[in-house]
Predict the structure of AWPM-19-like family protein.
Amino acid sequence: MAVGSGGRSLLGPLLAVNFVVYLILLGLAGWSLDKYIDGEQNHPHLGGNPSTIFLLIFALIAGVIGACSVFSGFVHRRVWNNASLASAATSAILAWAMTALAFGLVCKQIIMGGHRGKRLQTLEAFIIISGLSQLLYLLLLHAGMFSSRFGPAYHG
């Protein structure tokens, strides 16, 4: 087995899943924000409470940064060296941090209660899924610290 091929074989499917999740997240958040801006807060599929607008904005930002992180991950998977690892890890950390902020707003949204439509509940679920899958991707990128079997070595 070549050096680092253990992590490389897992990285491709995880990146594909992350990309699909972030695209769905962007679609749902974009649709919901459009309805919210048009004044249709009482739309049967939207609903919400005072924290909804913040959730939608942070979900869009997290989705865009997450999708960019996936592109950086695909480049790292292709090149597979320390320089590409640094850029992939940096963008993955930023994407996970923004997704974690959106996750916090999901928690606030659920705690505040009120009518939450089906699409808003679906958006909340996809934010939770994207946070967990991004964390798994981030851990897989940093697995090279423990063994060079999982990726480019972290030694200088």
